[in-house]
Amino acid sequence: MALKAKQLTVGDTYTVRLVEDLKRTQLVQYAGASGDYNPLHTDEVFTTRVAGYPSVFAHGMLTMGMTGRMLTDYVGDARLTRYGVRFTSQVWPGDTLDATATVKAVNGDRVELDVKTVNQDGVEVLSGYAEARIDP
Amino acid sequence: MAAKHFPVQSGHILMFARAVGDDNRVYADEAYARDTEAGGIIAPPTFVQAAAQFDPDYPLRPKIGQPWFGSGKTASGVDRPPGAGGAGGGLHAEQHFEYHRPLMAGDVLTAVNRPGETWEKEGRRSGRLKFSELITEYRDQKGELVVTARSVSVFTERAASAPAERS
Q1: Which of B1, B41, B60 is the best substitution to test chain A (most A C-beta atoms within 10 A)?
Q2: Beta bridge partners of A127
Q3: Angle, helix A60-75 to helix B10-19, in steps of 10 degrees
Q4: Cβ–Cβ of A73/B24 closer than 8 Å?
Q5: How far is B57 from chain A (nearest CA, A)?
Q6: How many beta-carbon pairs under 8 angstroms link A with B?
Q7: Over the stretch B79-135, which tens digit does the pLDDT of each residue have?
Q8: From CA B52, how far away is CA B148, in angstroms rounded?
Q9: Is residue A45 part of a domain?
């Protein structure tokens, strides 16, 4: 499961498709699970007529959460030591997202990763880093 | 996120994992999880954000008997001008987590906030941008640090052109 230092090379990449054609219902699911009920993510009437956006859009933390699956699939369960991101573009219903981790450095029992998630147009929606414990 | 009592429950973990599209059995299957390195059901990496459920004052949850700004009979349940956006807070610009140990089902956390740095920047489209950090320490039932979170919010002069999420 966990990564091994001797099998890692700087520049290695790991990519996972996080979601295809993101549905509004998934935004509702995330609102319910996370407790963030901001209508901007679930209430099309409020978001278009009052807030002035073209439609509801994803919680940044949903994109970070989905990207987290890519990371734990790669580094193994209970191995992350750090994970941080910047939200660089909005994610809309209908989007298809791919997340990639790139090995930046291997230091003893730790791997440092660059993390990036892009949409179907290649636009970066999330950019960040992670660090995980690895085996020798 | 501030919470005096944030019980990390397996059912909540299951719902959260489903919402982020993760069917890893370590979040759902007790018997399977017991034989993994962590030795039980663990929480996904961003799960502590769900402390919002246990923050009595969390502003983005409808509260019984109080006005809510989402749509009902009208486009907003409260009187607010068009373009006024979400709860009037900033946009969520960054989120960082430091994991001191795996978060497990059965843990009971407290979450305590402290302010971090603040800074300003001139935005290309949105005028002056004001950034502020909030640091949250999640401690377990023994008072030991489990997760340190750092959230960066950005407040813009002109609302609708902002790049990130309103929080």
Answers
A1: B60
A2: A86, A116
A3: 100
A4: yes
A5: 12
A6: 180
A7: 765 555 555 567 899 999 999 999 999 999 999 999 999 999 987 776 788 999 999
A8: 15
A9: no
- Please report, for the domain that includes residue A103, its CATH number: 3.10.129.10
Residue whose C-alpha is closest to residue B30's, from B19, B18, B43, B39: B39
Cβ contact B75–A2 (<8 Å):
no
Q: Are A126 and A19 within 8 A, CB to CB? A: no
Please determine, for the modelled complex, whether the ipTM score is greater than 0.95.
Answer: yes
Say how many C-beta atoms besides its own lie within 10 A of residue B35's C-beta. Answer: 9
Interface test with B, best of A25, A80, A87 (most B CBs within 10 A): A87
User: What are chain B's domains?
Assistant: 6-63+86-156 (3.10.129.10)
Return the residue of A nearest to B52 by Cα. Answer: A35
What would you report as the CA-atom Rg of chain B, rounded to the nearest whole angstrom?
18
Residue A110, domain member (yes or no) = yes
pTM: 0.94
Q: Which domain holds residue A112?
A: 5-22+60-133
Q: Give the pLDDT confidence of A53-63 residue by residue, as tens digits.
A: 999 999 999 99
